[in-house]
Amino acid sequence: MYLINKCKCPNCNNTALSVFDAEGNICETGDFCTKHHPNRNDITLEIYNYIYNNDKIIGLNASGIHFAGLNMTNKKFYGCNFQHCFFTAIEANNIVSRLSTFSYSLFTDCSMKNCDIKFTNFSGSKFIHHLFNGSEIVNTNFLGISTEQTSFDDTDLRKSSFANAYLHDVSFRNCNIKSTNFHFSTLENCSFRLSNTKEAIFDKQGSDMLTGIDTSDVL
Questions:
Q1: CA separation for the pair 211, 1 (Å, rounded)
Q2: Phi, psi dihedral angles at 214 (to 5 degrees)
Q3: Which residues contact 29 (CB under 8 A, 6 or more apart)?
Q4: Would you write out the chain's pLDDT as a tens digit for each of its 219 residues?
Q5: Fewer CB within 10 A of the terminal residue: the chain, N end or C end?
Q6: Secondary structure of residue 45 in the 3-state scheme
Q7: Other CB atoms closer than 10 Å to residue 8's CB: what's the count?
C-alpha cells in the first residue's frame, strides 16, 4: 500500500504526494499534497514520467493529480492512491489493479477495456463517456458513483457494489452480476440485456420490476 505521509503544510490533513530519488524510485518520505505543493507542474510531470517508465507501479500516491491524454495501457497498479484525481481522455486498457483507490475522482472520455480489477475502490467517483467493456471487475467498490453514458458490456462484476449509486445511461449487457449489489441505487435508462439479473442484489422495494430498467431489455 501507499505510504501515508502527511502534508507538511500546517493544519493540512491530506496525504503527501509520492516523491522520487535520483534513480526514479518512490521514496518513503513525502512533502506536500497536490493543493499545497510549491511546484505542482513539476511533481505532476514526475508522476507522469514514473507511470510512463514503469509497467508495475506499487504504492504510488498521486492523489489530486489531473491526468490528461496519458496512455496507461497494460500498466499494473498495486496499492496506489488516485483519490480526487481528474482523468481526461485516458487510455487505460488491459490494466491490472489490486488494492488501489480511485475514490472521488472524475473520469471523462476514458477507456478502461479488458481490465483485470479486483479489491479496488471507485466510491464517490463520476464517470462520463467511460468504457469498462470486456473487463473482470470483482469485489470492487462503486458505492455512490454517478454515471453518464458509461458501458460495462461483457464484464464480470461479481460481488462488486453499486449501492447508493446514480446510474444514468449505463449498459450492463451480457454481464455477470452474480451477488453484485445495487441496493438503493437510482437506475435510469440502464440496459441489463443478457445479464443474470436474478442473481444480483436489488433493494427489496424495486426488486420485482428492477426499478428504472426496461424489463423488455432484461430478457
A1: 38
A2: -70, 110
A3: 5, 19
A4: 687 899 999 999 999 999 999 999 999 989 999 999 999 999 999 999 999 999 999 999 999 999 999 999 999 999 999 999 999 999 999 999 999 999 999 999 999 999 999 999 999 999 999 999 999 999 999 999 999 999 999 999 999 999 999 999 999 999 999 999 999 999 999 999 999 999 999 975 544 445 555 544 543
A5: C
A6: helix
A7: 13
